[in-house]
Amino acid sequence: MWLVAFSARNKSLTYFDNQTKLTFKYFDYQTNGFSFMSACSQSHRFTAHNQQGEKRTFYVLLLTLFTMVAEIVAGTLYGSMALLADGWHMGTHAAAFCITLFAYRYAKKHAHSARFSFGTGKVSVLGGFTSAIALGIVALLMVVESVHRLFNPESIQFNEAILVAVVGLSVNVASMFLLHDHEHAHEHHHDHNLRAAYLHVLADALTSILAIVALIIGKFYGWIWLDALMGIVGALVIGKWTFGLVKQTAPILLDESIESNYIEQLNQTLSPYATVTDLHVWRISGHHYGAIISLVDHSKTPYEEYKHMLEKFDKIHHLTLELQPAK
């Protein structure tokens, strides 16, 4: 977070971030009795370009797409709703991987573009919201088809369906190891994109297991209805993930204020020195905040002290702080 503090009294400027400080003293700007301090992010590069992570995610995306198509085709040919549900569920994760790759590349390409006032942090958020809506429709269609087959069962070619499901599970396990090794090796980077991709693959592996269990039981016990039931379960898993993604992305796109605890911490930090007259904090990316704070200073606290107070709020990457002296 870069901070610029002005003071006309000393005809000077201080320009610093959390690691670097360029001191030209202070420069104070006053107009109509108001004193302003502007704290702003000079670079909104919220997605550090991780070339190795991007490459591994691309490989996993290819594996996921291949398995998704194979399961959907096999489920259609062999009459397995469990395979169809697992195939469409893999589509949710393929969409997540596409969002990850798009975020890497688009953010890198437009990192310094003046067209994005707060950076490209919401690109992946918008993509996630769009894919969630589309996949929610898919989940609904899967439920309708599974319910239909539950009451109107069709014959299933169990051996072929089980083989395809096992291949799908193997691909999921391979993808898990591919992403987990990289995530563990770069754990200190806190790459949330790769972490999310790994969790998606893990969830998909569990869904593949459901399909295999349904097919094996159906083959040996004749419970054909279990396949349709597992199809419903798979659709519900997609629906749950879809709802969670919409719940996460919609508030960010609508600039909803962040959790009250964070705002309360800001108030508690500043209130001993100034009266907080206006406070807005919102997300400018999935994990970064923008903030506008207006204060009436009654303690004559120097700008340097306010800077130290706000340093601990490291999620705020674009800050505008307005100070008005108490009358």
TrEMBL record:
<dbReference type="GO" id="GO:0016020">
    <property type="term" value="C:membrane"/>
</dbReference>
<feature type="transmembrane region" description="Helical">
    <location>
        <begin position="198"/>
        <end position="217"/>
    </location>
</feature>
<keyword id="KW-0813">Transport</keyword>
<protein>
    <submittedName>
        <fullName>Putative transporter</fullName>
    </submittedName>
</protein>
<dbReference type="InterPro" id="IPR027469">
    <property type="entry name" value="Cation_efflux_TMD_sf"/>
</dbReference>
<keyword id="KW-0472">Membrane</keyword>
<dbReference type="InterPro" id="IPR002524">
    <property type="entry name" value="Cation_efflux"/>
</dbReference>
<keyword id="KW-0406">Ion transport</keyword>
<feature type="transmembrane region" description="Helical">
    <location>
        <begin position="223"/>
        <end position="243"/>
    </location>
</feature>
<dbReference type="Pfam" id="PF01545">
    <property type="entry name" value="Cation_efflux"/>
</dbReference>
<feature type="transmembrane region" description="Helical">
    <location>
        <begin position="125"/>
        <end position="144"/>
    </location>
</feature>
<feature type="transmembrane region" description="Helical">
    <location>
        <begin position="156"/>
        <end position="178"/>
    </location>
</feature>
<keyword id="KW-0812">Transmembrane</keyword>
<feature type="transmembrane region" description="Helical">
    <location>
        <begin position="87"/>
        <end position="104"/>
    </location>
</feature>
<dbReference type="InterPro" id="IPR058533">
    <property type="entry name" value="Cation_efflux_TM"/>
</dbReference>
<dbReference type="GO" id="GO:0006882">
    <property type="term" value="P:intracellular zinc ion homeostasis"/>
</dbReference>
<dbReference type="InterPro" id="IPR045316">
    <property type="entry name" value="Msc2-like"/>
</dbReference>
<feature type="domain" description="Cation efflux protein transmembrane">
    <location>
        <begin position="58"/>
        <end position="254"/>
    </location>
</feature>
<keyword id="KW-1133">Transmembrane helix</keyword>
<feature type="transmembrane region" description="Helical">
    <location>
        <begin position="58"/>
        <end position="81"/>
    </location>
</feature>
<dbReference type="GO" id="GO:0005385">
    <property type="term" value="F:zinc ion transmembrane transporter activity"/>
</dbReference>
<keyword id="KW-0864">Zinc transport</keyword>
<keyword id="KW-0862">Zinc</keyword>
